[in-house]
């Protein structure tokens, strides 16, 4: 048998795509010949011919970007089984869940995501789950407190019977025999778990109906007199794993950062930066997973898969993040609105994986804390005091955060002995004015300035020369909700289109990142393809309107066939 130490933790396997390339090139040549033909006869025709020429030039250009991106697709094959043999001490992971609105994102959904995270196959004392609530909702907090009680039964049950789907709402919607077994012990425990989960759901439902707790006493006192966009920070350690035991529940922390009407809060990016800072003070894990509240873990080995490229010695200094594709459940058949992102991840994503790496997709992604703090790949092995001080010079006024930041950059783990020791500092770094005059949102952390903070942040990471990995394990690592269509899909796509254009027309533009940074040329083309997404409607609408226009004006834009 081969020495496990010598075996790689992951492999990049090129996909065979000769036929696909042939078709892609053929289409490209057909487009080019059409353009040449149009150009040669431009003088003999009117406006319609010119418009068609311009639209087709655009289509040819975008097709060239697509071909370049898809040319060398690769699949990542990860070997989580080898991980423990090669890396005896798994690193800690801080897991972030963001939620913003208890009505649009019902707490039961967030609770399921949190439960699925707490139950993953990873040493429990190495995990901490932080929930950021931009809705400042006592109901969300109450739901999490109740969920942590249920988790004490749910997590051991999942691990004992090796349950595959660890989000209870999803698990209990399937037949018990499918996952888990048929022994009478199992059947009994399954029944008990189901009853307990139903009790939890009812409690949460009641809380939503009656806005429990209405008196805001005791644990809920901090929520009294709060408005969603005007309230002080609220941080609560819901559960602390005090014994550092493997089979105890992981830490669970609730954070609602301070919001004030005159202070910009920078939406999700702002929330992520608060999460990075508070977790830096509390657990300071070298890796951070972030998920949207509606994206539960669907494969319990997810964290082990993600660690393979991040910890493999050949890539340790190069791969900044492991991204899992967004996969959705319950979506419309054949994805008529295109919001299940199949093309983006299945085709373009794997093509990107063969270049510098996939875009950061905002959820289902494991980041390295050092990279988020601003470290460059060349400096990883040589972080000295001066460099750390330089990076941390605009980290804000919290001395505790600067100390923990220096440790993170130097690769030291230094979690404080208990979480409550860092509560006071955590309140300080969650304040709405903490970031003034600092590098947060510019050089450090999640980037501000675009509503698509994920692509923006990923682009800035690639610009520094980092790579990223796209992992598509089977079953998919995470499953999420996509809007089913109608106005919500339109609003989402409008937000994406605007946010992508904000990046294109800013100093973060990928062309500058290639000219003045380390963004590879073909990676730059791929970024251009996605960032220009919001402009595509112009030539597409125009081209679609041409036939009707020609019919009305009795002109033509297609060559006449002469037999
Ligand atoms: O002020 C805000 C706004 C949003 N969120 C959270 O951010 C996540 C994504 O927001 P959502 O409204 O669901 O946007 P989507 O368009 O569905 O999200 C996709 O697009 C976003 C922007 O590119 C990415 O951040 C997401 O990860 C990606 O799933 C959710 O968990 C929200 O709760 C906040 O925490 N604070
Ligand atoms: Mn969403």
From TrEMBL:
Source organism, top-level taxon: Eukaryota
Xref: InterPro entries: Cellulose_synth, Nucleotide-diphossugar_trans
GO terms for cellular component: endomembrane system; membrane
Residues bound to Mn(2+): 268, 292
SUPFAM superfamilies given in the database record: Nucleotide-diphospho-sugar transferases (SSF53448)
Regions crossing the membrane: 22-41, 47-67
Keywords recorded for this protein, A-Z: Cell wall biogenesis/degradation, Glycosyltransferase, Membrane, Transferase, Transmembrane, Transmembrane helix
Catalytic machinery residues: 134, 454
Membrane-related topology note: Multi-pass membrane protein
UniProt cross-references to Pfam families, sorted A to Z: Cellulose_synt (PF03552)
Name of the protein described by the UniProt record: Cellulose synthase-like protein H1
Organism this protein belongs to: Quercus rubra (Northern red oak)
Example GO molecular function: cellulose synthase (UDP-forming) activity
Entry keyword Membrane: yes
Subcellular location per the Swiss-Prot or TrEMBL entry: Endomembrane system
Chief place where the protein resides: membrane
UniProt-annotated binding residues for UDP-alpha-D-glucose: 105, 134
Keyword Chloroplast applies: no
A single GO BP: cellulose biosynthetic process
């Amino acid at each position: 048998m081969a020495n496990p130490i010598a075996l790689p933790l992951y492999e990049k396997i090129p996909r065979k795509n000769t036929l696909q390339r042939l078709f892609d090139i053929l289409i490209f040549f057909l487009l080019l010949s059409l353009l040449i033909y149009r150009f040669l006869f431009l003088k003999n025709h009117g406006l319609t011919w010119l418009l068609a020429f311009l639209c087709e030039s655009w289509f040819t250009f975008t097709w060239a970007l697509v071909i370049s991106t898809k040319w060398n697709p690769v699949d990542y094959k990860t070997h989580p089984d080898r991980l423990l043999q090669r890396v005896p001490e798994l690193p800690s992971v801080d897991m972030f869940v963001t939620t913003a609105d208890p009505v649009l994102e019902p707490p039961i959904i967030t609770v399921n995501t949190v439960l699925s995270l707490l139950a993953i196959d990873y040493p429990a004392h190495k995990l901490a789950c932080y929930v950021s609530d931009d809705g400042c909702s006592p109901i969300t907090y109450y739901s999490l407190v109740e969920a942590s009680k249920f988790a004490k039964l749910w997590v051991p049950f999942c691990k004992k019977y090796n349950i595959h789907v660890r989000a209870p709402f999803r698990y209990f919607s399937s037949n018990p025999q499918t996952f888990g077994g048929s022994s009478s012990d199992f059947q009994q425990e399954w029944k008990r778990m189901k009853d307990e989960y139903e009790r939890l759901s009812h409690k949460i439902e009641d809380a939503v109906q009656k806005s429990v707790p209405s008196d805001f006493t005791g644990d809920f006192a901090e929520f009294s007199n709060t408005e969603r966009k005007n309230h002080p920070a609220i941080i609560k350690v819901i559960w602390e794993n005090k014994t550092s035991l493997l089979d105890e529940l992981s830490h669970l922390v609730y954070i609602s950062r301070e919001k004030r009407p005159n202070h910009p809060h920078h939406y999700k990016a702002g929330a992520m930066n608060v999460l990075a800072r508070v977790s830096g003070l509390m657990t300071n894990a070298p890796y951070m997973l972030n998920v949207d509240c509606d994206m539960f873990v669907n494969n319990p080995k997810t964290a082990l898969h993600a660690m393979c490229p991040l910890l493999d010695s050949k890539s340790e200094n190069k791969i900044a993040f492991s991204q899992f594709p967004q996969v959705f459940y319950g979506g419309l058949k054949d994805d008529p609105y295109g919001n299940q992102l199949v093309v983006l991840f299945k085709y373009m994503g794997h093509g990107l994986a063969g270049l510098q790496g996939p875009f950061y997709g905002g959820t289902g992604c494991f980041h390295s804390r050092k990279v988020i703090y601003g470290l460059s790949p060349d400096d990883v092995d040589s972080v000295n005091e001066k460099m750390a001080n330089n990076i941390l010079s605009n980290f804000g006024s919290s001395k505790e955060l600067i100390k923990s930041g220096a440790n993170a950059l130097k690769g030291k783990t230094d979690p404080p002995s208990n979480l409550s020791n860092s509560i006071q500092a955590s309140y300080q770094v969650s304040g709405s004015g903490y970031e003034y005059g600092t590098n947060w949102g510019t050089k450090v952390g999640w980037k501000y300035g675009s509503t698509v903070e994920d692509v923006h942040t990923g682009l800035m990471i690639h610009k520094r020369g980092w790579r990223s990995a796209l992992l598509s394990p089977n079953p998919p690592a995470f499953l999420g909700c996509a809007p089913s269509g109608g106005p919500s899909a339109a609003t989402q796509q409008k937000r994406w289109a605007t946010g992508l254009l904000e990046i294109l027309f800013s100093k973060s533009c990928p062309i500058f990142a290639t000219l003045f940074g380390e963004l590879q040329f073909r990676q730059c083309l791929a970024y251009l393809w996605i960032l220009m997404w919001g402009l595509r409607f112009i030539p597409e609408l125009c081209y679609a309107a041409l036939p009707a226009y020609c019919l009305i004006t009795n002109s033509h834009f297609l060559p006449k066939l002469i037999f």
